[in-house]
Amino acid sequence: MGSGIVTLILFAGLVAVCVLGNATIRQWLKLRFAKSWPCAPSTIDSGEITAFTVRGVPKHTLVVKYSFVVEGKTYTGSYSETFESEGGAKGMLQSIQQFAPPARYQRGIPWLSAMDPHGDAALTFSQSPR
Prior knowledge:
Blueprint: H1 2-34, E1 39-40, E2 42-54, E3 57-70, E4 73-83, H2 86-98, E5 103-106, E6 109-115, H3 121-124
Antiparallel strand pairs: 1-5, 2-3, 3-4, 5-6
């Protein structure tokens, strides 16, 4: 019985990798580790929404480019998220542009950064709107 559960868990993991794709998993892992990284105020430099279909189902990917300053040096990063609707992507872009979430960066190597508008939403309200 125990080996059946292990097999089921491994199968579920394989399905998750196939469904979510490598980029989504990498982003999720990066955000997970970034929770302990320091924050810096960010500036939203651009935002773009790209439409595409997966097996006939429309999808919309939002890509936001941002910059932030650590110890007087400017660094850049990007955030992406895929939505079922164009309205969802546009709403998130508008939210990020209005209340830019902080950039989280790896201490010692700030060029490695992440932005989490969902997890760090509360931090944006301690900054003034842009």
